[in-house]
Write a structure and sequence with these properties.
The chain is an alpha/beta fold and 389 residues long. The protein has one domain (59-388): Vaccinia Virus protein VP39 (Rossmann fold). Helix content is 44%, strand content 15%. The strands form 3 sheets. It has an 8-stranded mixed beta sheet, with helices on both faces. A two-stranded parallel ribbon has the order 6-9. Helix 7 (96-110) packs antiparallel against helix 8 and helix 8 packs across helix 9 (149-159). The radius of gyration is 28 Å and the shape is elongated.
Amino acid sequence: MLRGTIVKHPAVKSALPVGSRRRALAAKAFNRVWPAPPPTAASRQRAQVASQPKPQSADQQLRAEEKKLRAKWQSSRPEILGHYLVTGVQDPRINVQSIMARHMFVRALFGSEFDSVMSEELVWAVELNNAIRLKAAELGVSLKVTSDPAKQADIDKACEVIADRVGTYGERWRNILADREADRLSVLEYACGSANDYRSFADYGIARFLDYTGVDITEANIQNARKMFPDVNFRVGSVLSLPEADRSVDFVIGFDIMEHLSLAGMQRAMDSAIRVCRRGIYFAYFIMEEIPDHVEIPVSNYHRNRISAPLIRQQMADAFDTVELINIPKMLREEYAYPSNISRRAYSLIAEGPRAARVNAGPRPARLSSPSAGRRARLSTTWRRSARL
């Protein structure tokens, strides 16, 4: 108490200004005459508590996560980002999960009118994926996603086997939809990358039916997207802090994003999607398993979590009228006789009819459904011809 009183006395403060040499000499002399008492257990405990970082609020933790995610992706060169997840078996033109997202939009626009075409497209996609798989095996090339230019060049070489056919269904859909009219759908895409899937929306003639907004945390991705599509609404933003109002868009979609968030971040992003959508959501997962709980796995500045399919099913059943959670490798194996998939733990989530959007409607159980008949076309033996390519 004596020390505090002396230091705070106006005369002492005037004679010995803070930071002055006189004050430092006076402090040494004072401490020699009246040394500080040894710290008590209570004072040591108070000092220890004071030295510990204060716990962050949930919002502070998510803001810190956003900062790390930006740091992770900003380290990549724009030209690398421009090719990331859009080549090889990840090419949205032949990637089954990307095709299913486009089919969701077609059904939302035109009902079941084009179910037969959609079934044929999936059969065709399996043929091309198998041709790439066989060619890659022949060349000794791995088809895993990579940002290494040399490895990417090897993948591109394997994909030359389908070069003359990869645009088949883009042209077919453009012709089918050319003279069609329908009410536009508003769409918000999480982590849109460098217009990764929007490229196929445009190429397939679907984009003109969409009021589309693409959000990505990486400025280089958004710059890439705007260069390709200057009239489309691409913006830098985070799925952890979306400004969209409740029920402000028809559909929220996202590809391979949820696994890269903390579990708290994933919950925030999914809650936002449920809050924002009027009609439904589509999310493609690349690491989902039939396990009881989510497993959080931090990796550098992001995550590679293992997502629990049962927990997602339950969450969606509580929020939507109809829910499909489709095990992609199982679907390809059982419905299309396709023995392989580059992502062996891939799932696609399609949930429609958000319950909070129904006014004065009582609760009712969601219908957990398997893929519709239109999407489950049986694979004919024709695709086996790709084995001889």
